[in-house]
Amino acid sequence: MSSFTLALLIFGLAYLVIMTERIHKTIVALFGAALMIGLGIVSQDEAFYSHEYGVDYNVVFLLIGMMVIINIIRETGLFEVLAIWAARRADAKPFRLLVLLALLTAALSAMLDNVTTVLLMAPVTLSITKRLELNPVSFLIVQAVASNIGGTATLVGDPPNIMIASKAELGYLDFLVVLGPVVVVMMAVFIGMLWLLFGRHMRVAPHLRDAVMALDPRDAVRDRAFLRRCLWMLALVNMGFCLHSVIHQEPATIALLGASLFMLMGHGRGAKHNGEELSYLAEVEWKTIFFFIGLFILVGGLVKVGAISMVADQLVTATRGNQTGAVLAVLWGSAVLSSAVDNIPYVAAMNPLIVDLARSLHPEITDYATLVHQPDIMPLWWALALGACLGGNGTLIGASANVVIVDLARKAGYPITFWQFFRFGFPVMLGTVFLSSLYMWLLFLR
C-alpha cells in the first residue's frame, strides 16, 4: 500500500472515530499520529521539528501560555466582574446577553486572535449562565462561531491571515479595509439568525434576573491590588499580540513571556488552593494541547504525501483562465477543506500555488510585489483568506477556537458533541461563504 493511500486511510479513520465520539478525540489523534510516524509516512524528525509537516509549536505554546494566564487571572475575580457587567448591560435578558457576548467575542477576535479571545470569554460566559441557571452550550457554540467570523477581519485575527499577509505582502490595513466590511455584514446577518433560532425561546426566572441585576461587580473582586497588576500585565500581552510583526516576535513567545511574568506575580498564590507551587500549570487543558499535537502530525502526513497540495492544485488549475471560476473555487474549496483539516497547512500549500499561477499568467513581471498584487491575482488572496477562516466554523475540529471552547465546556460539565456543533456551525459556514461569494463578485468580478 502506498504512503499516499496509507495517509488518507489513517486520517479518514481517525476523523470518523472522532465524529462517533466513542473514543476521546485526544486518544484518536495521538494514535493516528503515532501510526503516521510508525509507518514511515512522516519521520520523527519531520513530525517534531519540521515547520512544513510537523507540530505547529506557535499554536501549541500560544495555547499553553494563555491557559496559564487565564488560570491566574481567574483568582482575581475578573471574570465574575465581566460577567456581572455583561448581564447588567443586557438587562439580564438571555437573548440580549447572547448577542452582547457574540459581538464582544467577534470584536476581540479581530483585535487579538480567536484562540486568545475564547480563552478569555468562555469563563465569563460560564460564570453568568450559571448565575442565571441557563445552559451555556448554545452560548459557547455561538461564541466559537463569532470568534471565527470576527477573526477573519484582520491580519492578526486568525493564523491563516498572517501567513497570507506574509506571502502576498499585505499589511494590517489591507485586511481591515477589504475584509472588515463583509465581516460586519456577516455579523449583522448572524445576529438576525440568532434571533430566529433563540430570540423567542430564551427565558430566565424573574427572581434570578432580579438577583443578577442587584449584584455589584466590585463585590466579586477578591484582591484589588493583584487584579490591577494582572490588568496591566494583560494589557501588555495584548499589545504584544497586536504589535508582534513590528517587534518581530511570534505570538507564542509573547504568550510564554506573559505567562512567566504572571506566574512570578502570582508566586505562592496557587499553593493556597491545592498545595502545589505550580498549580497554574497543572490546570492547563493538557488534553486539548495533546489533541492539537496529534492533529498537526495527522495533517502533516497528508501534506507530506501531497494530498493537500494535490487538491489545492486542482482548485487552481481547473479554472485557469477563468477568473470568476478560480476565485469561487478557491473560496468554496478552502472553506470545505478547512472544515475537515486544519487551515494552517492548507494555506501553506495554497500560498505557493497562487504565486505560481501569477508567474504563469504574468511571465513578463519580475518584481515580486508587483506580481502578487496584480488585479487578477489579488481576489485569489482574499478568497483564500475568507474561505480558510470562515471554513473553520464547519465542524468542531475546523478551528482551534472550536476545540478550545469544547474542552472548556466539557471541563465545566457541559459536553458539546461533534454533531451539536455541526448542526449549528455548518449552516453558518455555508451562509457566510455565500455572503463572501456575493461580496467578492461585487468587489472584483463584475
Automatic annotation (TrEMBL):
Which is an annotated GO molecular function term of this record? arsenite transmembrane transporter activity
Transmembrane region positions? 26-43, 97-122, 175-198, 226-246, 289-312, 380-409, 421-444
> Could you tell me where this protein is found in the cell?
Cell membrane
> Which cellular component appears as one GO term in the record?
plasma membrane
CDD domains found in the cross-reference section: P_permease
Where do the Citrate transporter-like domain residues begin and end?
15-387
Q: Which residues form a coiled coil?
A: none
Regarding the membrane, this protein is recorded as: Multi-pass membrane protein
Q: Which Pfam families match?
A: CitMHS
Q: Which UniProt keywords apply?
A: Cell membrane, Membrane, Transmembrane, Transmembrane helix, Transport
Determine the domain of life of the protein's source: Bacteria
**Family of the protein in this entry:** Belongs to the CitM (TC 2.A.11) transporter family.
Q: What is this protein called?
A: Citrate transporter-like domain-containing protein
Which organism was this protein described from?
Nitrospira moscoviensis
